[in-house]
């Protein structure tokens, strides 16, 4: 066991970062495209974290929440998964929002990098 991944780094990379991260990016993009509030994104990522934790449990023998003996371990790795997924969701939301601001309000804003915008001079 490690502090970041439970079974193996490859397991963490494939399930949490690639599959879960892709879904988190798309959730962030969807909330930005619908001009949704940030707390709704947090709720979506909490649900996605539970799903990712279950996949770790079902496929690779990681811990899940239901047996009380493994609840603490599962909570630790769920928090790690949540932070990784939330960062990717936030990046997806900001990248989409930057494009929206530059396109919708082109008279007032320019895109400044992949996740930002600035006022026009």
Automatic annotation (TrEMBL):
Pfam families (alphabetical): DUF6867 (PF21741)
DUF6867 domain span: 11-120
Keywords: Membrane, Transmembrane, Transmembrane helix
Membrane-traversing stretches: 6-26, 38-59, 71-91
InterPro entries with a match to the protein in the record: DUF6867
Domain of life per record: Bacteria
Name of the protein described by the UniProt record: DUF6867 domain-containing protein
Taxonomic source organism: Faunimonas pinastri
